[in-house]
Automatic annotation (TrEMBL):
Binding-site residues for chlorophyll b 1, renumbered to this chain: R73, E133
Any one GO cellular component localisation term in the record: membrane
Protein name (Swiss-Prot/TrEMBL): Plastid light harvesting protein
Protein's organism: Attheya septentrionalis
Superkingdom, taxonomy of origin: Eukaryota
GO BP, one annotated term: photosynthesis, light harvesting
Signal peptide (residue range): 1-16
Predominant place of localization: plastid
One of the Pfam families matching this protein, by short name: Chloroa_b-bind
UniProt: chlorophyll a binding residues: E68, K164, E165, R170
Function: The light-harvesting complex (LHC) functions as a light receptor, it captures and delivers excitation energy to photosystems with which it is closely associated. Energy is transferred from the carotenoid and chlorophyll C (or B) to chlorophyll A and the photosynthetic reaction centers where it is used to synthesize ATP and reducing power.
Gene3D superfamilies cross-referenced by the UniProt entry: Chlorophyll a/b binding protein domain
Keywords of this entry: Chlorophyll, Chloroplast, Chromophore, Light-harvesting polypeptide, Photosynthesis, Plastid, Signal
Family: Belongs to the fucoxanthin chlorophyll protein family.
Amino acid sequence: MRSVVAILAVAGSAAAFSPVAQPMARTTSLNAEGYDGLVGISLETGKKFFDPLGLAEYIPAEWARKAELSNGRSAMLATVGWFFPYSVYKFDSDDVTSVDPMKAILEADPQWWAQFVIFCGVIEAIKYRGELEGKTYSSVGEPVVDYMKMYPEDQAARELMAEKELKNGRLAMLGIASFLSAHFIPGSVPGLPAGF
């Protein structure tokens, strides 16, 4: 025990002779310039790039937009999946008997989770292949998947559609976060009933 204390005392005194660290200059404003032309910078953010945590210093604009869109799409599906059994219809099932999403996750047979993970992998593989072919799933351009040919041809309509999808995704992320908060902390979200 004495040797540990002695080593710590020596290490602490040796730190006094190390050079003082220079404060790093913040470069967020320089790196944020790559974000200025992105879809989604509009009235809600004061027509400026919104980055209160300074993440633009570390994350490339293209990667951040892809992540936001993917998370927004997942949140849209999660939001519908959360309220659909409560409000619209509960599918007949032998294994899932609850409309509570947290209980339903645990009641579902593991084979459904395996199928879900495989399905997600297939979707990611299709997105990756499309990007290798020069298509996009995250910005205005030729889409990776457009089986119904509903994607607009003119650039202005494409930009409008991309902005709508991004904003709906942002709203869905807030929505699913509020559902989770209301579920685990009853009364934390005004307007949502207890146990929703």
